[in-house]
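Retry 2 of 3 after timeout on previous attempt. Resubmitting structure tokens to design endpoint.
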């Protein structure tokens, strides 16, 4: 957890209450580190004012940036007075997710925190919201914060993939557990649990193959997942009662176990799919997030490269 020292908080411009900032302060007060409160703003009407000179438009932009900076400073006033190190940064950029990821890359941040908004399932397919862009493309871990306090005696729940169909799952599982153990140790000694979901028997197979025994199939699949979970927990010296292998879809199993355990955060890996496969199939993180009543921490595998690049022309103003 010592590496989560440089935190970026994406400020929500539409409300005075900032759950992501509260969570960042909570982490810094327990682990040390510093926070940057970041906001990307843009008003198309300023770009359409042809009667104004470029200098006048620049001056108007800076006026808006200064106003929003003062507003964020007021949101942070209590924390600043308490000695929490918070830097405020506001930029003019017409694509918020790009501005945030560019800041993550240029500032070499360890963790991005953002308030999680509920999204309509259809909307998340047709109109890809900023949250989904960040989950797919942000190179550092993304902490999606729900508007609720950290539960007393809560747990951190790590969702692992035990199917071993792809070679990247095993190292990603290890990375998730390792980082979560560090997190749990430093945040009020939160206990850590692991959860894995295994699929139910496909109905069409049972119908098409008369000799097929669904119970034998289910037992075999469950056995494979239990063995994989045992190997994973033993690698980290975890107790068996802290692991959960359940039948069903991840987006159903993970939120159910999280609620049962009163989890403060669910940690899972996201592979950063883009394009058609992401839009219509989606990542587990994206299916899970709207069903969770707690925070979600999404971590990329080692070697992940963000498709977002820094701007070459430095055309975006900031303060």
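Retry 2 succeeded. Sequence:
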């Amino acid at each position: 957890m010592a590496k989560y020292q440089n935190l970026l908080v994406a400020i929500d411009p539409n409300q005075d209450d900032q759950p992501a900032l509260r969570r960042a302060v909570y982490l810094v007060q327990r682990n040390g580190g510093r926070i940057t409160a970041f906001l990307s703003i843009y008003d198309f009407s300023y770009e359409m004012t042809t009667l104004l000179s470029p200098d006048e438009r620049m001056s108007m932009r800076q006026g808006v940036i200064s106003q929003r900076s003062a507003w964020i400073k007021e949101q942070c006033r209590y924390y600043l007075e308490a000695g929490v190190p918070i830097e405020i940064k506001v930029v003019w950029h017409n694509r918020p997710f790009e501005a945030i990821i560019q800041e993550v890359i240029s500032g070499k941040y360890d963790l991005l925190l953002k308030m999680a908004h509920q999204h309509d399932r259809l909307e998340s397919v047709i109109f890809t919201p900023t949250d989904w862009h960040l989950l797919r493309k942000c190179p550092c871990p993304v902490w999606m914060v729900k508007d609720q306090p950290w539960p007393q005696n809560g747990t951190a729940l790590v969702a692992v993939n035990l199917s071993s169909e792809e070679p990247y799952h095993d190292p990603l599982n290890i990375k998730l557990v390792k980082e979560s153990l560090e997190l749990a140790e430093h945040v009020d000694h939160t206990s850590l649990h692991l959860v894995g979901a295994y699929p139910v028997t496909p109905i069409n197979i049972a119908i098409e193959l008369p000799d097929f025994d669904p119970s034998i199939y289910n037992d075999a699949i469950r056995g494979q997942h239990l063995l994989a979970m045992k190997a994973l927990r033993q690698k980290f010296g975890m107790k068996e009662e802290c692991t959960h292998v359940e039948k069903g879809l991840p987006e159903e199993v993970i939120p159910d176990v999280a609620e049962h355990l009163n989890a403060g955060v669910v940690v899972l890996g996201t592979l950063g799919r883009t394009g058609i496969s992401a839009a219509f199939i989606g990542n587990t993180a994206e299916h899970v997030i709207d069903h969770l009543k707690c925070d979600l921490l999404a971590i990329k595998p080692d070697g992940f490269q963000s498709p977002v690049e820094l701007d070459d022309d430095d055309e975006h103003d900031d303060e």
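Attempt log closed. Confidence is low (pLDDT under 50) at residues 122-128, 276-281.
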